[in-house]
Write a structure and sequence with these properties.
Helix content: 25-40%
Strand content: 25-35%
Oligomer: single chain
Distance between the termini: 18 Å
Number of helices: 9
Structural class: alpha+beta
Order of helices and strands: HHEHEEEEEHHEHEEEEEEEEEHHEEEH
Shape: elongated
Number of domains: 2
Radius of gyration: 31 Å
Largest sheet: 11 strands, antiparallel
Length: 469
């Protein structure tokens, strides 16, 4: 009777172990389902979700750093036609995006509309000097008028230059060059980012994700339109993806991320580069492809971004984008800093540039489960053009058209410790808890089943032998 009870106990133990192991296995999809449901709920843009407060007002501080390309040999350029030599001066850092979104309205089509206020506050502790530091840079008025006038009308610019004692280069403060000064030639306010403070970027309409989480953050309209009106082409005028502050959850390494940037007036894509650890959180780093601003000869999709073949060597130059059509006809060219991934011709006409993928490339570090961008660096360079003229005195020695780099900008933000702790507590602690539970149950169940089954076999074997003794 004792042997029977012992064997029955082992059978019950094995069955119990099997049940526990099965329960552990069942918790895997159940836990994943609970986590998936929680994430899908919390990333929706609506009051009360984890995403909403950070969407209304960026939690992490966002900064714009500026590096000026200070001309070292202005006199030699003017008198001898020398190639400009520049030295990088910076960073001069400003806190931006510190104002919450305004006029937030939730629409019947599951979108939210808003205005994004623009402002910049100087951060001396993150800068190499005060805003009053002076640099020698291209004369914005001269370059602008030169780009607009035909050769037959160069005499008009020559007249203005002589009347105001202007030149090809000017010596001004960082503050003036960025945020504006009264130009003596045009009698109006000029600056690289005029107007900025007190203005808005928008109006944006983005999907909330309430009815379809795979669309959360995707831009539905910008300035009331579903497409751009800058490029006169269906492909180039597309508004794709989000604003890059976040993406739909459950990010796949194999799928590019699309985002629209109003700074460069177009949509771009970024591809997975590597996995990194950010304050104990795994993030996927996505970077722009090298052919994003390639010549149309290399990337035919870029043909529609070539607005003026006369200023880009018949659209053969790589690395520059003419955005005058979205800058009120101001002749501005955008590139990556130091003409990274650009044609050698660009760097041949300006000495002192040293492109580096580490320091000059754009990247986004995205947490793959939520789709939140936890760290980013968006880097662009502002350029203007000038060239030779037989009429304009300050341009008579110039040999070739030159895309001159004025300043490059790094807009950056990174996850702070408080937000990192919140993400780990609210999300990853639950994932870890489910992982520990199902592993413990599965391990204990398998061990109990195996031990009881083995013991049962041994007991049964011993009992059979005892019958023949």
């Amino acid at each position: 009777m004792g042997c029977c009870n012992r064997r029955c106990g082992l059978i019950v133990g094995a069955a119990f172990g099997a049940v526990v192991a099965i329960l552990g296995g069942v918790l895997i999809p159940l836990g994943n389902s609970i986590i998936k449901g929680t994430v899908e709920k919390e990333v929706v843009i609506e009051p009360g979700t984890t995403a909403y407060d950070n969407w209304v007002a960026t939690g992490a501080a966002v900064y714009r750093q500026f590096w000026f390309l200070d001309v070292q040999n202005a006199r030699e350029v003017l008198q001898d036609g020398a190639i400009p030599v520049v030295a990088e001066r910076g960073p001069y850092t400003y806190k931006t995006r510190y104002l919450p979104k305004e006029n937030i309205t939730f629409n019947p089509n599951q979108t939210a509309s808003f205005l994004l206020p623009l402002g910049a506050i100087f951060e001396p502790s993150m800068s190499v000097g005060p805003e009053e530091d002076k640099v020698t840079s291209l004369n914005l008025a001269v370059a602008a008028i030169y780009s607009i006038l035909s050769k037959e009308h160069h005499f008009l610019l020559e007249t203005l230059i002589k009347a105001t004692n202007s030149s090809l280069f000017q010596y001004r403060t960082v503050k003036e060059l960025l945020w504006g000064y009264t130009d003596p030639m045009l009698k109006t306010k000029l600056g690289l980012f005029v107007p900025y403070n007190g203005t808005f970027d928008g109006l944006f309409n983005v999907y909330t994700g309430k009815d379809n989480v795979s669309k959360v953050g995707m831009i539905d309209r910008w300035r009331g339109e579903r497409t751009l009106r800058f490029w006169d082409d269906k492909y180039c005028d597309m508004i794709n993806g989000t604003d890059a502050s976040s993406f739909p959850p459950f990010v796949d390494k194999e799928t590019p991320l699309y985002f629209f940037s109003s700074d460069i007036c177009r949509s771009v894509s970024a591809s997975f580069q590597e996995s990194l650890d950010l304050k104990g959180i795994e993030v996927y780093r996505f970077t722009l492809l090298e052919n994003t601003m390639a010549s149309p000869l290399v990337n035919p999709d870029n043909q529609c971004f070539c607005r003026n073949p006369n200023t880009t060597r018949n659209c053969s130059l790589a690395g520059v984008l003419d955005i005058s059509s979205c800058q009120d006809k101001r002749p501005i060219y955008i590139s990556l800093p130091h003409f990274l991934h650009g044609s050698p011709y660009l760097r041949d006409n300006v000495k002192g540039l040293n492109p580096s993928k580490e320091h000059h490339d754009t990247f986004l570090d995205v947490e793959p489960t939520t789709g939140f961008t936890l760290r980013f660096a968006k880097r662009i360079q502002v350029n203007m053009m000038y060239g030779p003229s037989n009429v304009i005195t300050v341009l008579k020695k110039v040999k070739d058209d030159t895309l001159f780099p004025l300043v490059w900008m790094n807009e950056m933000a990174s996850l702070d410790d408080k937000t990192a702790d919140m993400i780990k507590k609210e999300l990853f602690s639950r994932i870890e808890m489910f992982g520990i539970i199902w592993k413990a149950l599965l391990g204990a169940g398998v061990a109990a089943f195996a031990l009881c089954s083995l013991s049962y076999c041994l007991v049964k074997s011993n009992d059979n032998r005892s019958k023949f003794v």
